[in-house]
Amino acid sequence: MNTLLASIPLVIILLLMVKYRWSGAKAGAAGWAAALLIAALRFGAGPRVLLWAQIEGLFRALYVLYIIWGALLFFRVTEADGTLAAMSEMLQRLAPGRTLQVLLLAYGFSSFLQGVGGYGVPVAVVAPILVSMGLPAPSAVIITSMGHSWSISFGSLGASYEALVSATGLEGALIAPWMAAILGFVCLVVGVIVLGMAAGKGNVGRGLGPMLSMGLTMSIVQYVAVRIGLVNIAAMLGALGGLAVGGIWALYRRRRTQQGKIEQATGGFALMRTLPYVVLIAIIMVVNFVPALSTLLSRWKIAFDIPARSLADGTILAAGKTQAISVFGHPGALLVYAAGIAVLLATARGSLPPGSGAKIRAGVLKSGMQSTLGILTMMAMAITMQASGMVSELAAAMAALAGRLFPLVAPFIGALGAFMTGSNTNANVLMGALQLQVAEKLSLFVPLALALHNAGAAVGSVFAPAKVMVGCSTVGLSGSESDVLRRTTQYSLVVIAITGVLGLVLAGLIAN
Hints:
2% strand
């Protein structure tokens, strides 16, 4: 009975979002309310336990939301001043042949956009460009959705990664390298899908070299960035590496086919317009590699002590602290600094059209409010379930059911969470602690289990109905999303299944 009751909040979210098409905010509020009632009436969580669970959930949510709002502000500024348009134009001029252009845009550039913006930005920007190049609208949405899926977890300045760290309470350095390794494998698998859709039958061979070299570069650079501590820009750096390799291929083939050189004036102008991204990377690297500056910015933190609490059955919840939020040294703050400098650069060269300020504010508010409400309610629900023992109850049941096959199942659980909530970040919040406890009960290697969960959530987020509807709306397919949803789901499930098999093999090797 306890297992059934503990699952009710998750079932409510699933039904409301998938069957009744409720937003993440509304469904999250319903699940949160159910979790509070069940925690109090069945699992012995008194007012004190529930109050501190909400406070802890609030701080964990705010940590992630700081990144999201900063990323949205930076993206809207660079959208308004023409930076994104200049970069996409430069890539199209650079590459000869549609297959290489699609690889640069849907595999490289969309991943770069995920690195700094995310939340539907890659598809919204790249899919219309692909349609203008002659790709069918459904294919443009699918190919862009799949192409950037590997970069979602360390994209948006690492919001999904930070959410998993917050939800599990583990050290980021413990799980980040395994996340990057599994996502690197995903990068190569989705690269094959992108190439197949871009080149068509019989033309894959010509694009295989660029795809493999771009995919390997993106995977390796992201992994190395994670290992040296540049977690929040790992996806961005990986994508930049892939774009550089793809650019080399483009220049080589342009020279061989004698299609001429890129107009230097246009190219130089486009390169100048990428300065906001150079500034962002520079800020993050300086803060990461200058300890004195990092210490100074991290001096002012907001956190509260959480006292010891107990459930009705006598279970003691140890004292601790809320998630600490660094006011000036947080990744979200670094995004705000970069956005401010981008505004100054745009103002100096006069590239911000009249009324841009109002447009930027409206865009940030429109994109940010829904994500904010969803993350707040789902984080509160997740921490309520965790503090009351509901997560432990579900973990024990899942461990008994899946047994040693759990590494195969873990990516599908992550994908389910992302499908329900429309977000890798939300899935990590919702399911992260559950996956952790299942892995511990089965004596599995926890970093691998969480990496598999996260990879499934990353890929699962691209076929979430909300994401598909956003992508379709940008290419004139509103009201005709069913075909795109079906095909994206098919491709995604293949990637998730292959990832699960890899996880099963790795788990066996680690156990031996």
